[in-house]
Every structure is written in C-alpha cells, then in structure tokens.
Amino acid sequence: MCHVIVTCRSMLWTLLSIVVAFAELIAFMSADWLVGRAKPSSPEELDNRTGGPQEPYRPTLGIYGRCTRISHMQFSRRDTLCGPYAENFSEIASGFWQATAIFLAMGIMILCTVAFVSVFTMCVQSIMKKSIFNVCGLLQGIAG
C-alpha cells in the first residue's frame, strides 16, 4: 500500500513538473505582458462575419514579442500581426525586461531539467544516497 502511494505521488509530481515547465515557457513566449488601451473601431469598420462593429483593438507587448494592427488589412479576419520585435538581446525594451528575460530563461531551463529528471524518478529514486525528490524540489524552489 505504501509503495502505491509513493508511486502515485511521484507520478503526480512528475505531471505537475511538466505542466509548470510548459506554462513558464508559454508565459515567456506570450506577447500579453503589457496590454494597451482598447482602440475603438470606426463606424465604417464592420466585422465581415457578423455585420456588426469589430472588437476594439488592444496593442500588446511581451518580453521580446508584440502584437500590432496591420492597417491595410483592417477588414480581413486577421488584422493583427504578432511576432518578435527584438532581433537580438540588446533590442529588448529595457534593462528591467532584459533582466526578466535572463531570470525567466534560467528558471525555465531549471524547470525543464527537473521535469526531464522527474520522469526517471519512476525507476530510480536516489543517487549517491540523496533523494532525487529533495534535490529536484530544491531546484524547483530556486527556479520559482
């Protein structure tokens, strides 16, 4: 019975480790860190699908990506373009955002490593008399 509980707990920890690593990666890639004020659409801009006014446009900015409106395609289905605005590290918006990018990247690397190692804890639970769970938990705390 005790072995089953330990196995279920390690499987849950492994699954959650993988989910958190992917969530951090998605947050890093997101362009929705700063969302601008809604810019109302003009009366002549109508949604082709519903015939009513389009949803107001909100410009967004992320650590290295952004979403902007494409003016010549305002009547199409996709009138925003999302992608990186920074081609290299020095083009990231500010020093604080550069520091955020460094710390988030380090945290994501640690979390991905822990998620990868956690898969192997199903078979091996200690190395050199050290619990892999304790070491990985410490690494997850540092990454957080």
UniProtKB/TrEMBL annotation:
InterPro entries: LHFPL
Pfam families for the chain: L_HMGIC_fpl (PF10242)
Key words of the record: Membrane, Transmembrane, Transmembrane helix
UniProt membrane topology term: Multi-pass membrane protein
Entry superkingdom: Eukaryota
Residues passing through the membrane, by range: 12-31, 96-124
Localization in the cell: Membrane
GO CC terms: membrane
Residues of the signal peptide: none
PANTHER family listed in its UniProt record: LHFPL TETRASPAN SUBFAMILY MEMBER 2 PROTEIN (PTHR12489:SF19), LIPOMA HMGIC FUSION PARTNER-LIKE PROTEIN (PTHR12489)
Name of the protein in question: LHPL2 protein
Organism: Erythrocercus mccallii
Gene: Lhfpl2
